Amino acid sequence: MNASVIARIAKIVPLVVVAAIGASACDASEAALQAAPAPTAVRSATSAPAAASVAPTEAAPSAATAAPSAAPTATAPTATAPAAVVTPAVVATTATDSTRTTTKDTAKNTAKDAPKPVTKPVTGSGGIAITFNGLGEGRQVQVGDQVPFSVTWKNNDASGSRAVAPVVATQEYEGAQCTQMLSMARGTLERKDASGWKALPSLSQGGGMDYAGTGDDAAFTLAAGESRTVEYRMVLDAGNQPGRLAVEADAVLPHSLSVMTKSVVGASVVDRHRPVVTSVSAPTALVVGKAPTEFSFKVSSPDGSALLRPVVRLSLPTGAGLTGSDVTMEAKVGNEWKSFEVTADCNGSLGVAPAELVGVLHGNPVEYTFRVGLKRTGSAGPVEIQVGGDSDGHRGATAAVRPTVQR
Q1: What is the pTM of this model?
Q2: What is the rounded CA–CA span in Å between residue 359 and residue 186?
Q3: What is the DSSP string of 30-83?
Q4: Nearest-CA neighbor of 128 among 243, 27, 212, 221?
Q5: Which pLDDT tens digit goes with each residue over 292-330?
Q6: C-alpha–C-alpha distance, residues 394 and 391, integer Å
Q7: Rounded Cα distance, 157 and 127, in Å
């Protein structure tokens, strides 16, 4: 209240009344401040890559968000439930917004034949429940095959409606073809909308939160107790290696990138078309700057040799600092040696996968003979040559060739 106004009132009313008016105004201002909503922090979802391919673990990002008071909000569940049956020695992790439960089950996997729905646990009367249908825990997914599944979002909040943007994406993947930056599975993901199938920008989440906005154009409102099911289909590229792939479904507050709640299911990626190295011959000595090392290896493919080609990569000591111009690689074709350009792949390894040898050498298995030379080593340490096969994009596990190095 203005001081001059108080002075005027004091002339005509007792001082006690003036004090009461001033106190009432202060109380009203304080009450208004207390009633104003406090800003809500939003925590971005992150995920940690799994490291091993023999006993994989899921990298489950945590995501706890709250919406501004003017928009619909969701209560994040806090209770946890054990994950569905998984394959032996595989650790499955199901993450909620505030807790994470890890279960290890050595029982025989039955999910691949009859996938069971995986439901997000919800506590109390509020929250969004998320259920996977057709993509049960441990289900085998063959690379290159189309995998249809659906996800159901249900409003368990009896107090009112909830706005939801449906989002599905895969987390970081241990069997990714490229792991130097982000280990993300390569492939395609489509969502069925009213107008038909729509290709989503990416199968994987990537390194930020942009993926959380891919469901804004399909957002819907759920009344209390109402549910909505959305159909999806995905295809993993042939270059993905076998491993455990975590598929995440989120209930996102539309146009906010804020994940209200999520559900994660772990699929088992397999590849029945992978070539196999059946034998490796003993390499000759490698004399740096002079004589290359010569070796042979045999590769068989379930699909025959028509699309088979050899893969040779060089693993050098850390800090060697070598480039493709420091390495020579030759393959024996008939009675002649054929040179190939050596380049770095997406993981920084030097190597060559000579397309010129596709279908040239026949038989199953096919025997390849190579020789690899080094113009310099850059640093002391062992040299390892990794050999394998590629059949129409399906890459098999590699075997190691360790020549004696003379510097």
Answers
A1: 0.65
A2: 26
A3: HHHHHHSPPP---PPP-------SSS-B-----------TTS---PPP------
A4: 221
A5: 999 999 999 999 888 999 999 987 766 667 888 889 999
A6: 5
A7: 5
